[in-house]
Amino acid sequence: MRQLRFKDLQERTQAVAFWTAWIEAQKLVSSPAAFSKHQALAQRELSDLATFPAREAAAATGPRLPNILLFQRPKRSWTWIPQTLFHLTCILSVLYMIVGLNDLGSQQLTAGRLVIYVASLTFILVVAAALRQCALLVDGLGQRPRQVR
User: Fold this and answer.
1) Is 70 exposed, middle or buried (0-12, 13-18, 19+ CB in 10 A)?
2) The whole model's pTM is what?
C-alpha cells in the first residue's frame, strides 16, 4: 500500500514538473495567443491531475474476491504450499456443505446431527482461514510494519 502511494506521488510530482517546464518553454517560444492556449491546456491537465482519484483510494474500498481467495500469484515459492492447502480446504468446505445439506434433507433431522454438521463445517472454515493467513504471512503480505525507534 505504501509503495502504491509512493509511486502515485512520484508520478504526480513528475507530471507537475513536466507541465511547469513545458509552460515555461512555451512562454519563450510561443506567441501570446498560442501561449494562452498552451497555458489553458496545462491548467486543465494539472487540475485533472489534482482531482484524479489516487490508486490507494480505489484499493482501500475493501478487499476484493480475488484477494480474499488468494488468486494472485505468490511472491515466494514456499507460499504455494499453504495457498494450495487453502484452496483445497475451500473446495472441501463447499463439497461438505452440498453433501451435508443433502444428507440432512434426506434423513430425519435431529438436533444432534445439525450440531455435528455445523461444528464440523465451522472447523473446516477455521482451518481454511488459518491456512489463508499462513499463506499471507509466508508471502510477506501479512506482516505488520515495524516501528522505527
Assistant:
1) buried
2) 0.50
Long-range residue pairs from 48-53, CB within 8 A, at least 24 positions apart, any chain: 49/12, 49/15, 49/16, 49/19
Q: In angstroms, rounded to a whole number, what is the distance separating the alpha carbons of residues 46 and 20?
A: 9
The CA distance from 101 to 62, in Å, is 31
Identify residue 99 by its one-letter amino acid code. Answer: V
DSSP code string of 22-34: HHHHHHHHS-HHH
> Do the Cβ atoms of 74 and 139 come closer than 8 Å?
yes
Burial of 108 (0-12, 13-18, 19+ CB in 10 A): exposed
Among 49-58, 77-86, 97-106, 120-129, where is mean pLDDT lowest? 49-58
Sign of the four-CA dihedral 80, 86, 92, 95:
negative
Residue 5: all three cell numbers together = 502511494
pLDDT in tens, 56-81: 455 555 567 777 777 877 788 888 88
Residue 82, classed as helix, strand or coil, is: helix
